[in-house]
């Protein structure tokens, strides 16, 4: 039987030395473009949270598990001997299931053999898309705040990054800033919708604006849609479904967030054949193929009835309400999320100079961990007033967090 | 109903991905599938993984180890095993990264150390992915041909490939496709060059536990001066017959490992969590597991070598490790490797792999030396002494004369393949052609 992991785990990645020291011997120096990428903020916060026994609303993964019918399918696959290399771009059954799912979401029929690629999580889909389709020196537009792996992967591809800042309260797409960011050197724009960390769901109008600029400048759209099943307000619109966009869009998703199985690392990219070709090449050199038994689990997952998704949203809506209510009651300015399981708040009522200082106080004195989002901006100042909380936790955990906030978080004005 | 306006988007492909063409191997693979051929082509087993390892994975899924997870215990077991086997001390906290298979460990390692313009020495024949990783990282592959039929390493030729721009050499031992296990002498020579030119070594040791007779697997990292300049990559896949689980690792000096770790996190975030848990059990296997693994593979190796001899193959290195035989086509066979493989699929229903995909002669730094091959049956036991190394004039014809046969298959499969090949040979030799 499986022996338990050591007590130091708890899902906390092992800390790497940070920052990378400059080594005396030139031959041993790591490639320059990667020196800036140190231990992630998530690791640092998690270590601190563990140390102070804080309720962890920083990590963006659930503390509850996925559904039995999906796990059973994976177990069945292991027992049934499906433990050898899966076809590089995905087992046919999963590619087919993804194509079916994509059709339901976007209305577009795709060829599961030539337009669907299975990867080790959406993270790898993004890496393969960027490394396969971006040339050194190409310009790529990112919305900030951005998920931290985007910048690192773009650096690996030697891309030039142009950012467009989304600002509270709506985190609306600033049209003029976006138009200015596009040029004839723009190869692609990377859009995460629903959006981590803001909880924003890009509106149809916003996506149409982006689409028009992509067409005008002959650029690609890379869409990270891992939270597309977690929408509370409005609707998730598939960029690929907009007029003239399928031929220039890579749509990416994964199993992890929807089915609470983030550790299985099953993701995928849907794109027309001429784009799929490039990302498949990169994928074949990055990981060669994706875990076979969990692909079988994913096949079962994607056969879930509509009621599964309705319950999913219902459950997350309840969690959202518990947390948002709690955050408002203690004095945060809350930017109610339209989707995802994240919420951003303004912490300035509590008198701390920036998000890092506030989050440190939150862990050490209040007993709740959250993420300081300044790390998700090119210029950290753009995020210093904000904090990201995650509500992908069971209700008891959320209630405990809210209790601690109410008991221990004090506003300067109230303490005189 | 995919939009087919490829003309507008053809310029959108990254130039580097356009350089990678589909291999003839892929076409043959499709043919093999269509003909339902017996698969001695692909390097994965058709027999089950060890039961206790599978059960460990299942238990992990049931115990809800299904979220992002880093299992530090795997690093500890990897470090411990490496120290026990190779005598090199490894700090599991700072020197080991768990990746999605050795594939990702290699990709992350190459990205960590190779920059635009760096040269990386590769030994031919070579698994095709190494070059692709080097090119993706902006590096330049520099090939040195191993000399058939023993695939020996000519140290002078190797040194010619090193220069001021050399960042690293990639060494795969036990070796795919040839089945060679690099000798202590050869590894020592490589180590000496790495130290002399102050460069790195990245190793692929996935077949480390599949060796035969006296050919023990030695890690380059165990040589003097190499511990601080070697990245070792390996995985569970071949040892535990779980090629589809994607659990591998890199072992490297702390500074380099930190970079590998950071890149890995950006490429895939983590290896599948339940399989990391299962790795804890796998890596605790008793010595008798490894002994049995070798015995079973030796039996298969001997069977397949006999099969090939009876089919007319006579000039090949009897594998010292890995689960591949790299055999030269019989002299009297007029076909090249690709055509031979296609015919074997269609006529005998057995799939093997043409060797051409492993050779990169356009990038050789020096021409190989090739030995005249006497048509004698005990070639398999040739020793190093008494070989005449005659240089060829660069025709490179032998590059299309090798085929790779995998024996990581159940004996039932191998016997079926043998029967099919015998039947095909009989048909070919029958007077009523």
From TrEMBL, chain A:
Native organism: Sphagnum troendelagicum
Pfam families the record matches: Aminotran_1_2
Source superkingdom: Eukaryota
Domain called Aminotransferase class I/classII large: residue spans: 54-405
Keywords noted in UniProt: Aminotransferase, Pyridoxal phosphate, Transferase
Biased composition, class Polar residues, residue ranges: 1-19
Cofactor: pyridoxal 5'-phosphate
InterPro entries reported in the protein's UniProt record: Aminotransferase_I/II_large, Kynurenine-oxoglutarate_AT, PyrdxlP-dep_Trfase, PyrdxlP-dep_Trfase_major, PyrdxlP-dep_Trfase_small
Protein name: Aminotransferase class I/classII large domain-containing protein
Ranges where the record places region Disordered: 1-24
UniProtKB/TrEMBL annotation, chain B:
InterPro entries found in the cross-reference section: Aminotransferase_I/II_large, Kynurenine-oxoglutarate_AT, NHTrfase_class1_PyrdxlP-BS, PyrdxlP-dep_Trfase, PyrdxlP-dep_Trfase_major, PyrdxlP-dep_Trfase_small
Electron transport among keywords: no
Pfam families in the cross-refs: Aminotran_1_2
Aminotransferase class I/classII large domain: residues covered: 38-357
Record's keyword terms, sorted: Aminotransferase, Pyridoxal phosphate, Transferase
Cofactor: pyridoxal 5'-phosphate
CDD domains to which the protein is assigned, alphabetical: AAT_like (cd00609)
Keyword Ribosomal protein belongs to the record: no
Recorded family membership: Belongs to the class-I pyridoxal-phosphate-dependent aminotransferase family.
Name of this chain's protein: Aminotransferase class I/classII large domain-containing protein
């Amino acid at each position: 039987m499986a022996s338990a992991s050591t007590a130091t785990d708890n899902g906390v990645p092992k800390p790497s030395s940070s920052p990378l020291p400059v080594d005396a011997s030139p031959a041993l120096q790591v490639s320059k473009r990667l020196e800036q990428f140190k231990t992630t903020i998530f690791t640092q916060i998690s270590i601190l949270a563990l140390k102070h026994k804080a309720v962890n609303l920083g990590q963006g993964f659930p503390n509850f598990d996925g559904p039995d019918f999906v796990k059973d399918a994976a177990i069945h696959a292991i027992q049934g001997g499906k433990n050898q290399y899966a076809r590089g771009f995905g087992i046919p059954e999963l590619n087919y299931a993804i194509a079916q799912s994509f059709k339901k979401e976007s209305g577009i029929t795709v060829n599961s053999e030539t337009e669907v690629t299975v990867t080790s999580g959406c993270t790898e889909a993004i890496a393969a898309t960027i490394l396969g389709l971006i040339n050194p020196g190409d310009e790529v537009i990112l919305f900030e705040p951005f998920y931290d792996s985007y910048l690192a992967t773009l650096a690996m591809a030697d891309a030039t990054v142009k950012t467009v800042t989304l600002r509270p309260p709506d985190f609306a797409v600033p049209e003029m800033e976006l138009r200015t960011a596009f040029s004839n050197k723009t190869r692609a724009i990377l859009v995460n919708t629903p959006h981590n960390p803001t909880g924003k769901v890009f509106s149809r109008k916003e996506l149409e604006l982006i689409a028009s600029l992509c067409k005008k400048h002959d650029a690609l759209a890379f869409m990270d849609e891992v939270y597309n099943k977690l929408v509370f307000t409005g609707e998730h619109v598939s960029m690929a479904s907009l007029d003239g966009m399928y031929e220039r869009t890579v749509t990416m998703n994964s199993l992890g967030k929807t089915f609470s199985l983030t550790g299985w690392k099953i993701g995928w990219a849907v794109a027309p054949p001429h784009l799929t070709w490039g990302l498949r090449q990169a994928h074949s050199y990055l990981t060669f193929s994706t875990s076979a038994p969990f692909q079988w689990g994913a096949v079962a997952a994607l056969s879930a009835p509509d009621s599964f998704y309705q319950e999913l949203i219902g459950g997350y809506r309840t969690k959202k309400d518990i947390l948002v209510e709690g955050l408002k009651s203690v004095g945060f300015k809350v930017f109610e999320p339209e989707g995802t399981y994240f919420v951003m708040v303004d912490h300035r009522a509590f008198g701390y100079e920036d998000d890092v200082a506030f989050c440190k106080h939150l862990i050490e004195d209040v007993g709740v961990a959250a993420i300081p989002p300044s790390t998700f901006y090119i210029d950290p100042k753009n995020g210093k007033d904000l904090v990201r909380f995650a509500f992908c936790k069971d209700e008891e955990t959320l209630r405990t967090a809210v209790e601690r906030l109410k008991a221990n978080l004090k506003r300067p004005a109230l303490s005189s | 109903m995919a939009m087919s306006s490829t003309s507008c988007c053809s310029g959108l492909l990254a130039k580097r991905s356009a350089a990678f063409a589909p291999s003839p191997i892929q076409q043959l693979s499709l043919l093999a599938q269509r003909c339902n051929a017996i698969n001695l082509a692909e390097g994965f087993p058709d027999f089950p993984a060890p039961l206790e390892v599978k059960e460990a994975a299942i238990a992990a899924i049931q115990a809800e180890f299904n979220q992002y997870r880093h299992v530090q215990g795997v690093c500890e077991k990897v470090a411990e095993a490496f120290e026990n086997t190779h005598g090199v001390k490894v700090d599991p906290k700072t020197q080991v990264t768990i990746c999605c298979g050795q594939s990702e460990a290699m990709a992350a390692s190459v990205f960590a150390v190779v920059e635009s313009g760096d040269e990386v020495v590769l030994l031919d024949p070579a698994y095709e992915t190494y070059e692709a990783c080097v090119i993706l990282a902006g590096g330049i592959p520099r090939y040195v041909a191993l000399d058939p039929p023993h695939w020996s390493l000519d140290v002078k030729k190797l040194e010619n490939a090193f220069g001021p721009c050399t960042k690293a050499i990639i060494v795969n031992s036990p070796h795919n496709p040839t089945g060679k296990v690099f000798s202590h002498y050869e590894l020592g020579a490589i180590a000496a060059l790495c130290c002399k030119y102050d460069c790195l070594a990245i190793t692929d040791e996935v077949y480390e536990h599949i060796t035969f007779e006296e050919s023990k697997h030695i890690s380059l990292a165990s040589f003097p001066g190499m511990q601080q300049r070697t990245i070792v990559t390996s995985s569970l896949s071949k040892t535990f017959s779980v090629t589809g689980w994607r659990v591998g690792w890199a072992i490297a000096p702390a500074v380099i490992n930190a970079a590998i770790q950071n890149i890995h996190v950006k490429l895939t975030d983590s290896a599948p969590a339940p399989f990391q848990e299962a790795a804890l059990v796998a890596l605790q296997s008793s010595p008798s597991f490894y002994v049995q693994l070798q015995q079973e593979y030796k039996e298969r190796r001997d069977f397949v070598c006999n099969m090939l001899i009876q089919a007319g193959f006579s000039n090949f290195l009897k594998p010292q490790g890995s689960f591949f035989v790299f055999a030269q086509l019989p002299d009297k066979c007029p076909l090249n490797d690709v055509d031979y493989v296609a015919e074997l699929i269609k006529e005998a229903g057995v799939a093997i792999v043409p060797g051409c995909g492993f050779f990169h002669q356009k990038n050789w730094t020096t021409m190989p030396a090739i030995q005249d091959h006497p048509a004698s049956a005990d070639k398999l036991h040739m020793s190093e002494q008494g070989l005449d190394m005659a240089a060829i004039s660069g025709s490179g014809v032998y590059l299309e004369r090798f085929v790779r046969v995998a024996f990581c298959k159940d004996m039932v499969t191998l016997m079926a393949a043998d029967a099919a090949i015998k039947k095909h040979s009989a048909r070919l030799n029958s007077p009523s052609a």
